[in-house]
Amino acid sequence: MTKPTRADPHEGVRYLTPEGAIEHTGTWTVGSRAGDYVFVAGMRGIDPATNTLVEGDEARVMQGFRNMQLIAASEGARLQDAVRLTVYVTDMGKHRPLVNKAQEEHWAGGPYPPRTSLEVASLNQDDIFEVEGTFYAPQGGENGGRDRD
Amino acid sequence: MTKPTRADPHEGVRYLTPEGAIEHTGTWTVGSRAGDYVFVAGMRGIDPATNTLVEGDEARVMQGFRNMQLIAASEGARLQDAVRLTVYVTDMGKHRPLVNKAQEEHWAGGPYPPRTSLEVASLNQDDIFEVEGTFYAPQGGENGGRDRD
Amino acid sequence: MTKPTRADPHEGVRYLTPEGAIEHTGTWTVGSRAGDYVFVAGMRGIDPATNTLVEGDEARVMQGFRNMQLIAASEGARLQDAVRLTVYVTDMGKHRPLVNKAQEEHWAGGPYPPRTSLEVASLNQDDIFEVEGTFYAPQGGENGGRDRD
Hints:
In chain A, 21% of the residues lie in helices and 26% in strands. The first copy, chain A, is α+β, with helices and mostly antiparallel strands and 149 residues long. Chain A has a single domain (9-136), classed as CATH 3.30.1330.40. The first copy, chain A, has a six-stranded mixed beta sheet with strand order 1-2-3-8-6-7, with helices on one face. In chain A, a hairpin with a 2-residue loop joins strand 2 (31-34) and strand 3 (37-43). The radius of gyration of chain A is 17 Å and the shape is globular. Chain A starts with 13 loop residues before the first strand and ends in a 13-residue tail after the last strand. The A-C interface holds A 36-37, 80-86, 90, 92, 96, 99-100, 103-104, 107, 110-121, 134, 136, 138, 142-149 and C 1-2, 4, 6, 8-10, 12-13, 15, 26-32, 34-35, 37, 39-42, 86, 88, 120-124, 130, 132, 134, 145, 147, 149.
């Protein structure tokens, strides 16, 4: 007998439009769920209330992580469920310390997920920081989707 | 009784060499399948017929998506099965609109997958655009690989 | 009857701290395991013995791959189990040949995983090369975690 405690993997990809997330502009959405993983698009320090960039470098970096967190949370993933972060900045020396500080606060002292930090030539809206996160959030019940006889 | 309707996850990673794809140059291949996911290498606007860059920025961006699409399709993944795109351009202001336009055509008006857009310092062959896509394409039969008794 | 040959997917993400890996500095860890996948943070040519950059471009690139390999291996993933590599360099013309050469050695002539190569503006410590790898390393026994009756 099959007990379908796990969401059918054949439902395919589900694109996410959680309440409170930033509004996307252009041909993309803020995140996806496929199987046990949640993929969040690169998030920047945009205030979802106004859909404009937050003022101040430190506040902006904080907001970027907050935006990512909200989207992940809408699928049951906590920051502690991040399997990978890729951080893009436009000034490594200036912004990397802000990223470290924001993560210390968001992750409450750690442990922290794997991270790759890159200085790129430019970001959208001439922004300074963007973070792309992948999360693990298994679906289904206690037995992890395995059948029980 | 076990009905092995799902490909054995222990078969490991399978590297893809679909007919009609561009020819890789160097130490890489165009894509991989592992479990329920398909990973396509960064694709640029190379014409697979000649293995040279397509002329014209707009046409080249279109071709890049087409190259990605073909590789994904070889494993049963449609563009609608993309879980994440990362788009690399060398001029955000100039190329991002072309990317949006190409996606509108390829995705037929949406919905669209999560996307991170980055301006990098340079791409191979001094190219202007590259897209890296990850897809979800569960293997196996109707019951999603779960056993039936 | 359930034979729990597969690690419970609900154990969540596990952050990796394998012996012999480089020491991370800052708010990150070197890798993670979630489900059947292993995610390795961007690795550079740091000597784990001294935690300082290896001298010489070619040796440094080689070391970066070696660092990635060690972390993947700690979870049972070989280089042949890589589903995707993203390679970041600061001079495409100068460093890409070194990457190709390092991969030829590490992968013993191939086949090679999908790879995206990007020239970024800068890397941490003004480094020249970084590689980010994702691996497939299914957990559990011969029957791939499926129940057997």
